[in-house]
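Continuing the series of single-chain predictions for the mutant panel. This is the parent chain; the variants come on the following pages.
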Amino acid sequence: MKLKPSLLMSVWGTIKHLAHYPGHEALITAPHTYPRTQKLLLAILVMVGIIGLIGLITTFNRQFMVAVPTTGGSLYEGVIGSPRFINPLLANSTADRDLATLVYSGLMRAQGDEIIPDLAESFTVSTDAKTYTFTLRPNLIWHDGEPVTAADVVFSVERAQDPMIKSTKRASWEGVKVEAVDAYTVRFALKQPFANFLENTTMGLVPKHLWSEVTTEQFVASDLNTNPVGTGPYQIKTIKRDRSGIPIFYELSPFKHFALGQVHLSQIRLYFYPNEQALLTAFDHGEITAINAVSPEIIKLLKQKNITVRTTPLPRMFGVFFNQNQAPVLANKEVRQALDLVTDRQQIIDQVLGGFGLPVINPINPLTIINASSTATTTNLIRAESLLISTGWKRDTQGIWVKTTKTGRTPLAFSITTSDVTDLKTTALLLQSMWQKFGAQVEVKIFEIGDLNQNSIRPRKYDALLFGEIVGRHPDPFSFWHSSQRLDPGLNIALYTNSNVDKLLEDGRTAVSTESRNVNYTKAANLIKADVPAILLYAPYFIYVLPEKIQGVNLDKLTRPDERFNDIYRWYINTDLVWKIFQAKNNKIIK
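Parent structure:
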C-alpha cells in the first residue's frame, strides 16, 4: 500500500487531535463516538501498523531463524523379491541388501565420493599404508542394548573370511589380518598397500554375542538372518507375514542410539512383491509411495502421470565377455574388432533401458564420457568388412563370414550365454540380430541365474557371456582383468591375459597417490581396449520414484541401489524454525 503525503498529514493531525481530546482515555472503549473521517483514518493507521509489524517479523525471522529437519513422517517403499539373508555377510538380493543397509553399520560409511567414520570415532594409517588402526566411538550399543566392542569387529571380519560361510564379502578380506588391540581398538594388517581398503570397512558388523552361538553349518539357516540385530539407523519393529510365512512387509523404527545422531523419518516400511506388475498395482493403489529398479516401460507410464522420477548412473558395466578357449573363432582379434564396430550401443540403451543408461567403452571406469559416436554407422560397417576381408575372411553363399586355412574351414559362428533376466535377454536378442545382419551366425542361450552361475560362469563354459560387473565407487579393476583372476572365484570372465596389464593393475592397486593410480589404470584401460577381450555396452541408471515431500536425499555416486539408504538418517519431511544461534546444535543432530 502506497500512502499519499496529504493522507499521512491527515493521519498525523488526527493523532495530535486525539491526544488533546478531553476524555481521550475513553476512546478505547467508545470508538463509535469518533467522527466518520477519524474512524477511517484510524482504521488505515491500524492497518499500516499491522502490515509493518508483519513485515518486521518476517524480516526478523529471515535474519535470525532457519528451518531445520525434525522428526516425523513415513516412507512406504516397494521391493521386488522377498528377504532371506538380512545379513551384511550374506545379503545377495535386492530385498536383503536394502534391509541390511538400514539395519547395520560398519566402521565407516560411504557418502558420495567420501568414506566417513560411522562406528569408528577415528582411524590411523601406517606410513607404509599396510596397517590401519580404528578406535570405536564410546558408548556404542546394539539394537538389543548390548555394548559394541572390538571383538564384534574381529568376529565379523573372520566370519566374512570363512570359506565355509561363502560370504559375498570374502574376496574383500582375503589376506587381511584383524586383531583387537583392546576393547575399543582394532587393527588390520595388509600384506601390501591397497588404496581402496577403507571401502572394505563400510561392511556392516554383526553382533558376536548373538552370532557366536551359531555354528558355521547353521550360519545360513539361522533365524538371525530374518530377525536381524544391528547398529544401523533403523531397527526392526514389526514383521507381517502371509499364511505361508512369507514376509509382506518389514516395519522399521528409528534407533535412538545410532552412531551418527538422531534420524528424522519416524517410520519405514518395505513391502515385498513377487513381480513388477504387483509392485506397480500396489503403487497405483497407494499402498506404497516409493519404488525403484523398475523397467523403462513402467517409468514411461509413471512419467505420463507426472510422477517425479529421480535417476543417477551406476558404476557398473554390462557387456559381452569372450571365452577364446571355448570358441577358437573368437581368438581371431579381427573378429572381435569387427563385432565391436557393428555394435549399436545407443540402440540397445534406447530399446532395452528406455534411454536410461550410458554407453560404455572404458573397461575400468564405465562412467567415462564417450565423445565418439556410440551408434553403428555405415562407416563402421565398411571398416568391419574391410578388416575381415584383409585378414582372409569371405562370405559364403548364405552370407556368413568364413575363413579357410591349412587346418580347415572356420565359420564366424558362436553362442551368447546370459541370464533369464528381461534386460539381458532383450539385449542378447538385439546383439544376435545386429551380428547376424553383419554375417555372423549367433545362437542365444538363456539360463536361470543359479544355473548360469553354477554350470556356466564358474566352470567358464561359454563362448561369449553377456553379463554385468559392479565396478564400485573407486575402481579396483584387478579382479576383473588380472590374469590371476581367470578361474573361479576370480571375476576375470573374459579369461584375459596380458602381462603388461597385470603389472599396471598391481602398481595401481598399491599406489598411495591417486594421481599415480589413475595413470596406471588409464594405461591399462587403453591396452585392454586395444585387445578387445570383451565388447562393453552400457552402464544403467538407477531409477527411483520417491515422494517429493521427502527431502535431504542424495543419489550421487551410488554403486548399488541399496546405497540410496546410506544417508537415510539425513532424509526428512518435517521442519522446525530455530534461532540461528542454535543451528550449530541442530547441525550436530542432523549432520
